[in-house]
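SAMPLE LOG
Freezer: B-3
Tube label: C17
Construct: single chain, 269 aa
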Amino acid sequence: MLRTLRHGHYLARVLLLVGLCALLGLMMGSFLNVVIHRVPAGESVVAPRSRCPQCGTELSNRDNIPVVSWLLLRGKCRTCGTPISKRYPIVETLTGVLFGVIAARIGFEPELPAFLVLTAFLVALSGIDLDTFLLPKKLVWPALLAGIVLLGGAAVVESDTRGIIEGAAGSAIAFGILFLIHFISPKGMGFGDVRLAAVLGLYLGYLELPLVGVGLFLSFLVASVVGIGLMVLKRRGRKDRVPFGPFLAVGTGLAIVFGEAILRVYLGR
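STRUCTURE (predicted):
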């Protein structure tokens, strides 16, 4: 009976953590929409406040509530009725869901903030890459720095040097693999992807070094499946460019959530 009560109490704490992180993700998603729109244009993500691109009306606080405002406004500007892109609620919802999933996966561990920050960066970088085929250094390098600081702090709290050593090794390995691909085929692999791989290798290596290989494998696998699907549907030709950053993000996310299970099956643990 006592074990059941303790288990129920822990489950309630986990659900509360997941809910709070999902709510945080919704709010962060609203900010990430600003980042995705303004960073490629070289604009500040802090000021001015968001405005309707058509009539220039500054959005009030009630019109900036993640997802809810878009639904209440029926996807239109309150002042001029100009349609508001569906991307805004999609990014907000996606970020909320991903934050919740990461919270459920990492739990009450000191590295949780680091992986939530990584998730936010990956959503922003994926959105920008889809729009511009670019992964801005002004986002990639801060993501790497944030990882070093936050994961380093988590390692200190846990007195765990393994995570730092394997994280550094994972960063170097992922960077080296994609750099080699870039060197062989610069048109097929942009250097922005190479830089991003160093970030992802750091995080995956911190969890467990073999996850770096899992993450890269899943990234290429998903990219291949989607690429073939787009060609079958005649949405893309063989020579059309497809941004690889989002696939790196998806592969990394899958490795974080399912990587350990994949390794158990593959290695027979």
